[in-house]
Amino acid sequence: MHQIPDNSEIFYRPSPEGKKLKNSPSGGWGAFNCMTEQYISLRNLRFMLYEVLGAEKLTQYPLYQEHSPENFEMILESALELGDRMMRPYNLEMDRNEPQLVEGKIRVHPKVRDFMRTAGEGGWVAAPFPYEAGGMQLPVTINSACGFIFNAANYSMSVFPFLATGSAGLIHSFASQEYQDRYLPKMFSGEWQGTMALTEPDAGSSLSDITTSAEPTEYGYYKIKGQKIYISCGDHDACENVVHLMLAKIKGAPLGVKGISLFIVPQKRLKNDGSLESNDVQTAGLFHKCGYKGAPIAHLSMGNNDDCRGWLVGEPHKGLAYMFQMMNEARIGVGMNATGIASAAYYASLKYARERPQGRKIENKDVTQAQVPIIQHADVKRMLLFQRAVVEGSLSLLLQCAYYTDLERVTEGEAKEKYALLLDFLTPIAKSYPSEMGVHSTSAAVQILGGAGYCKDFPVEQFFRESRIHPIHEGTTGIHGLDLLGRKITMKNGKAFQLFLAEVNEVIDKSLNINELADFALELQWAVAKLQKVAQHLFGIAQQGETEKFMADATLFLEMTGIIAIAWQWLKQGLAIQPKIAEDSFYQGKMMTLRYFFQYELPKIEGLAKRLLSNDFTTVEMQSEWFE
Amino acid sequence: MHQIPDNSEIFYRPSPEGKKLKNSPSGGWGAFNCMTEQYISLRNLRFMLYEVLGAEKLTQYPLYQEHSPENFEMILESALELGDRMMRPYNLEMDRNEPQLVEGKIRVHPKVRDFMRTAGEGGWVAAPFPYEAGGMQLPVTINSACGFIFNAANYSMSVFPFLATGSAGLIHSFASQEYQDRYLPKMFSGEWQGTMALTEPDAGSSLSDITTSAEPTEYGYYKIKGQKIYISCGDHDACENVVHLMLAKIKGAPLGVKGISLFIVPQKRLKNDGSLESNDVQTAGLFHKCGYKGAPIAHLSMGNNDDCRGWLVGEPHKGLAYMFQMMNEARIGVGMNATGIASAAYYASLKYARERPQGRKIENKDVTQAQVPIIQHADVKRMLLFQRAVVEGSLSLLLQCAYYTDLERVTEGEAKEKYALLLDFLTPIAKSYPSEMGVHSTSAAVQILGGAGYCKDFPVEQFFRESRIHPIHEGTTGIHGLDLLGRKITMKNGKAFQLFLAEVNEVIDKSLNINELADFALELQWAVAKLQKVAQHLFGIAQQGETEKFMADATLFLEMTGIIAIAWQWLKQGLAIQPKIAEDSFYQGKMMTLRYFFQYELPKIEGLAKRLLSNDFTTVEMQSEWFE
After folding, report:
1. Residue B263 belongs to a domain
2. Domains in chain A: how many in total?
3. Which of A292, A468, A519, B335 has the most neighbouring CB atoms within 10 Å?
């Protein structure tokens, strides 16, 4: 934030005296603007839902028969209204006024409480749950689209209900009816927060090493002891209670992941009279972060007074498998978080590029002529196209995953298995591509604004800081590389990989018949062939028993597969664009973004393939002591 | 920063009660560690200065004959001592306690005052100036190496004396003896700050559009009126006065860059009795930034009371040419800033990777065995090698540029022209590669630390935030792309480009004769051929008069040339490494980093070349109204 003399308590600086700095890097982006500027494109969301995916067809299945396209529209518009009214206006404020730990309790921005109640009353927390559980039975596809709106409006704020929904999902799927009755209504109403409590000081990526313990008692509950860190929304004053879905090991359990169980560990437990009492879950600390500051990340300590009770969810030792239901959804959710932030940054930089005059067209050196808006410079258009290609490509893949989830729910047998495998295969990609590219995309927004982009007068530096969390949480990019190359590619004898290739090839085949898409289809065909060549090369190494060498560049393999997956999604969009290209400029813009992706992004696989086909193993051979 | 209950006023959190969190993401990185950890490698700096460049040979020239290798060593060690003692300990503090604007004056961290005096007394501000001007006549190469140390120790703090040196350089080179006598002693002593005042609210990248005006008076000075923004160290309370080297237009001057003059505009002017009085330069605002928070960036307003005086430097209308002397140095300086920050981030993440146990080697699923330090994982080694390759490759190129500057100074005729042209050619690359890659490199440091890297308990998130300024200031990367492709490549009929290629080819030729380097030499030879092919392709477009299309991907051309320039520097290091490879593990580590660069970084030109050789002009054809 640009500070004017004599410290006024404002968030947005008025133009300094002496000069009205309209459209200039140090002024003009007042509070009003910041709060109401575009952060998503509803037009594009509709294009993807109806013109690309055909989400309205979901209403033909019994599960979703109560819904209708009109209903979907109403829900999307309500989401946008909620974003505009209750989320977006506090996005910067929540960044500037971080949560604080005061006398053992984390205080968050007061608007979070209002928002959680409104989200609860509006049915947003329970939206994807069945009617009988109190939900809207909303298709995952539509729910994801709404999530995208919330993420873009105010990422930190969107995390609170998202976590409540996710942890309620675990209770609904795996806990007894008694526990469901006890917790779900309060979580759905936004009165109680839900969390995922996995990470410990000594166990982050390596979950098998958690040490939080659970000791059985004769009263049906377990006594919990241990510490958890980085627990998003792990404690705060916007809700009356926090329900932790916590991984712990029952005393005497097998070592490693096979000994992990899932518990409900509420911050406050219900007494028989319905009142709440402390459950010996203490807030040991609050982490302060680079960005994503509006949401509190807690360090929790359980059982300091030997009085922390946990209730087992499902069967003992199956906790990790249960948790993975939520984690897979959460991973796709993280991809959406990243995409939402990148969308907000894209629109902020687009607006600036249209309004900021600087320089003249490159052939024009006549300084008597007025400066042109920077959007007229090819390099600025390149950075805008880059952002749009990342945002709309990622969104397309994420909605595709959501749609597969819906199809898995409504189908049976072989079809069901197919969609489940496609989802398994795409999860590490749908988490990692948007997350990694979100950092670059928000960085491009900063670059378009130049000095203004680096300053707090403008929102883009916040988006840049926020985006950096996504390659880290819900499994680092490195972990997802291992997941893709070490498990997903080979699972069921490579069936998931084959199904993915079949989906890509289907789009290629259709595109080959359309003049305007045929060249792109050929490029993608060739890219897929290169990916298969790389995979075969790596399997050759694996077959020699060289596991470490096989897996050494798993992150790069993930990157390469990710680019190809996004190219597939752009080509798929192309099939929906082409019949309407003459209709309005929306389709022209989409088509240019498709071209951008194939011209500037897809070629990045060249260098990756060259590296991945190498028989050099520098990173394996490097020794710790050679670093200095 | 991780906040413990009951808000203590500490910067570093002690381990929370209940558990000693050694080597864990939420603990163990105490104040002591943070302040004294390694941030540069003196061993590597010596390797580059003496084993690669042969900087000791500079003492054979009359200009530097008073110096000796022993003297250089002493100076480097003094720089490191200054960094350790007066800079590094305040690096985090200065980030957490930003400058504040209070009653029209910017307050900075109190240690800046001590540091500026010490830097002045130690001769650091005047180091590169001739003896007769009060300097040390220090070779630019050694001065740059010291700058690297300061940048890595505390980037924000290092900017204060760096700007004083740069602006004093302009006065020394172009101002009258009277002005030199008036300003230089106080600037050299660290009592007065110097700045570069170029950017205005409506003129950043487009300097030709500045509007700050200078009206001649009969008293020898000009009356200055206008506004400047983003002026680093433009006002603060660590110095008694601030001397702005300011661009302005004399009334009636030609339009555009040919009408720009350079003025000395002090914040306070000297009265005849030697005291200081206000010069009507008001601090209109203070910018708050994403990072680089320790240095104040001011908005200045001149002549609000019609009493701001400026003194012309040199001749009228030649201001931009004068300023470019400083800007070229400053651009290489920015490359060094970025490299210094990336170096500090590299060593922070290296230390963490060695100490943090997490997971087991990939072939080992036995959870009864202890976890291994993460440096044993190939993907972590990859991220460390990436950082090291960027840091030491950038440093190598930057010291090469400094060395060319020295050679230009000590030679005459054709040799002098050669070094000047090489420097001209390399400046946009030496500014942009380290700046762009510095963001990725510090981001890799964050990734290695995972959740800890995103939190303020550890210093890497600060380095990440700080690094983002470098692709913006001193000319954005886009501007440097235009400079390289639009001017440097073609200047003097392509002579600068040819000289660059000759330097690269010389290293290739030598390396082809050495078994261990021959393959890398061939790779580089092939890369250079590809670069020439790309250049020819682009010139073909230029010859058709398609200037906009020719320049549209200048940024990517800069990126490609940058990667090749760094590969050249790594191969050059290889020539110094090979004879000593068996001597100690330092050389093994260097050689592995060279291998990493050729295996993982050089292949990135494949995708760039494919794009640059395309005849598609998406970014030119894209229209503003097609974005939505």
Report:
1. no
2. 1
3. B335
